[in-house]
Amino acid sequence: MSQSRAVDVPAYINAQRFSGYQWLVLILCFFVVAIDGFDTAAIGYIAPSLVQQWHIDRGSLGPVLSAALFGLAGGAIFAGPLADKLGRKTLLVLSVVFFGVASLATAFAQDLDTLTALRFLTGLGLGAAMPNAVTLISEYAPESRRAVIVNTMFCGFPLGASIGGFVASWLIPHFGWHSVLVLGGVLPLALSVLLILCLPESVKFLVVRQKPIEHVRRILSRISGESLSDVDEFTVNEAAPKRAGSAVSVVLSKPYGFGSVMLWLTYFMGLVIFYLLTSWMPILFKDAGFTIERAALITALFPLGGGIGTVLSGWLMDKFNAQKVVAVGYALTAVLVYAVGQAIGNIGLLVALIFLAGTAMNGAQSSMPSLAAMFYPTHGRATGVAWMLGIGRFGGIAGALLGAELMRRHLGFSATFSLLAIPAVIATVALLAKNAWERARGHLPTTSNDARNSAAMH
């Protein structure tokens, strides 16, 4: 008779090579994030056609362009606690279907009010999908490679947005602006079928929520190739508040509350910079004397290095103190953004600085979901990641509004870029404060031997 044994799921995943099954999870989550990027950016690609065909003023597109941002924030904030209760896969599939249907409906909008309402609904689905994809892949990634794996998945967002621009430039002349939104609806609906058939639920979630042990055994067997038939107990040993309560209470609890606020502040400040620059940089360059074409090309350099910066940041996070690595990224952003404002007379230097600033900025900002996923325990991870993303979205809204105010005040190229160094400095300080707070407490919440929460499945 074989003797039964217990297996700690995080330790078991850490001990395995990154298997083909985990690659499948990564690829599917990458596709979710890529389509998320496509649909988020879609309204920008069709905006010129809307102005032309509907004979409307550009300024009247403001509510349409911001509606999805409000939806993204709301979707993330509400989806996190639901995912910690119902499951990451369940919420991910539902949100992908939701924003697919909403995008399809948006394609048939006949007026601005309808378009604005439907873009808000699309944003709700987009906002719910992103944090659950981050949470799911982070819970399948071995600890030694978690940051680089999550960051690699997150590269799908700018890639999807970028490819969307090329696709839209071909679709719109041939089939009209509606075709971009139709594609943005068909792709997620097709992907949702693959998610239902191929994507597993988070194995850590299954253990914490006391789901049937056969599900856990089957998933871990596909990762390792072992049968695990002799295992009659699976556990998830990790730090958690002594009285865990709801997922929201975990995020706001004493061991996590200060860190949560610092994550929110950092992500908020990062999106202030990102949305202000992506929304207003072409106008800044044009006002500085560049042609429209050159202004567009130089602006395109800002997100170009994002993939390099994101993967490099993830690799460094796995090797060194993750919070300090991301803090250095924001500090470099502050220096480089300020330098951009002083280099207006030197086109070669300006181009190089824009590329480097984008690499540092996007690398740091895209690393934040990975940092949040490391920080929270399984019981509150989806909520923690989602709330950071959701609250941070208001930074994007603030960045777009701040840009409009700076344009109204005619602040100028150099002064605007100098001003943008401030939120980057605030983000740096917030992460360093979080790191110092954890050191002062004598432990990191996700690795503490104190207040251990051992979730077991028999």
From TrEMBL:
Provide one Gene Ontology cellular component.
plasma membrane
How does this protein lie in the membrane? Multi-pass membrane protein
Ranges for domain Major facilitator superfamily (MFS) profile: 25-439
Keywords, alphabetical? Cell inner membrane, Cell membrane, Membrane, Transmembrane, Transmembrane helix, Transport
Listed GO MF terms: carboxylic acid transmembrane transporter activity
User: Where is it localised?
Assistant: Cell inner membrane
Q: Can you tell me where the transmembrane regions are?
A: 21-47, 59-79, 91-110, 116-137, 149-172, 178-199, 261-283, 295-317, 385-404, 410-433
Under SUPFAM superfamilies, the record lists: MFS general substrate transporter
Q: What is its main location?
A: membrane
State the family it belongs to: Belongs to the major facilitator superfamily. Aromatic acid:H(+) symporter (AAHS) (TC 2.A.1.15) family.
Q: List, alphabetically, the PANTHER family matched.
A: CARBOXYLIC ACID TRANSPORTER PROTEIN HOMOLOG
Protein's name according to its UniProt entry: 4-hydroxybenzoate transporter
Which organism is this entry from? Pandoraea horticolens
